[in-house]
Design goal:
Length: 76
């Protein structure tokens, strides 16, 4: 499942379509897993802002339902 990962570093917002993301605390870096199999690493993640929208919530919901076999209710 893909979703939009929108972040701001300094002045400008950037949106990347991803299939996952992971924070690496030891390096203070966010790794984005792109739909085409590529990776993007954002260094100094603690200095960034993040916006995850409804599509991310739905991706997490679908994943939870698939793993647990239970219908997850949302109040969106």
């Amino acid at each position: 499942m893909k979703y939009q990962f929108t972040y701001k570093k300094r002045l400008f917002w950037k949106t990347v379509v991803v299939v996952g993301h992971k924070y690496e605390s030891a390096q203070d870096a966010m790794t984005l897993f792109k739909e085409d199999g590529g990776l993007e690493t954002i260094p100094f993640w603690s200095k960034c802002s993040l916006k995850l929208e409804r599509d991310w919530v739905l991706a997490v919901k679908t994943n939870l339902e698939k793993e647990s076999g239970v219908d997850v209710k949302l109040n969106l």
